[in-house]
From TrEMBL:
Name of the protein in its database record: PPM-type phosphatase domain-containing protein
SUPFAM superfamilies the UniProt entry points to: PP2C-like
Entries under InterPro entries matching the protein: PPM-type-like_dom_sf (IPR036457), PPM-type_phosphatase-like_dom (IPR001932)
Highest taxon listed in the record's lineage: Eukaryota
Alphabetical list of Gene3D superfamilies matching this protein: PPM-type phosphatase domain
Pfam families found in the cross-reference section: PP2C
Species the sequence originates in: Kwoniella mangroviensis CBS 10435
Residue ranges annotated for the PPM-type phosphatase domain, each copy included: 1-197
Length: 197
């Protein structure tokens, strides 16, 4: 997800410009893109635990890494034959149901390219450009509905501010510290894949 934040000194107002869409299986345009690539596979997006996921596995539809969903069958067999790794059967980690691996690869890292002149309207100044990962989707300002009235800056660094606001606790620093100090599986369920630049 990428957004810019503009501030109009004269009017004392913020404007958020959304530069990219969510690249995940809850986004209808991403689902349409996936279905067009895999028209012979009805179950390319499955709901697991009330969440749309690529083959029941991943929420993101594009990502770096996650090779198991990017390799062709021939690539997987070559790697297995070379003795480098033994791939587990194609199953959802959530339901342990077998996922048909009909027409790989399923995921890619193809970027969404947006070209914008970084000049605002009259009296506007660019205050931040944020590039965030899928774990940061609930950040204030990533959708027009979320961005209204949510520009209260406590931090000089925009990335730190957005991460702090992404944490639960409605600004309660003790709750945020507790969330940041979680370890193991609890940490993964609360702050997995959360990066902001």
């Amino acid at each position: 997800m990428a957004v810019t934040g503009w501030y109009n000194d004269k009017e004392g107002k913020w404007r958020v410009d959304i530069l990219s869409q969510h690249q995940e299986c809850g986004n209808p345009s991403e689902v349409k893109r996936l279905k067009a690539q895999h028209f012979d596979q009805d179950n390319i997006v499955l709901k697991e635990s009330f969440t749309p996921r690529l083959l029941g596995n991943m929420q993101p539809s594009r990502a770096f890494g996650d090779d198991a969903l990017k390799l062709t069958k021939a690539d997987k067999q070559s790697i297995e034959l070379a003795g480098q790794v033994k791939f587990v059967g194609e199953e959802s980690p959530f339901t342990k149901k077998t996922v048909p691996y009909i027409d790989p690869p399923f995921m890619d890292a193809e970027p969404e390219i947006t070209i914008r002149k970084l000049r605002g309207n009259d009296n506007e100044k660019l205050k931040f450009l944020v590039i965030a990962t899928d774990g940061s989707e609930d950040l204030p300002g990533t959708t027009p509905e979320n961005s209204r009235g949510r520009c209260l800056f406590e931090d000089k660094n925009s990335a730190a501010h957005l991460i702090r606001n992404r944490l639960d606790g409605d600004g309660d620093k003790k709750v945020q510290e507790m969330i940041l100090s979680l370890g193991g599986g609890a940490a993964r369920s609360v702050r997995d894949d959360t990066s902001v630049m």
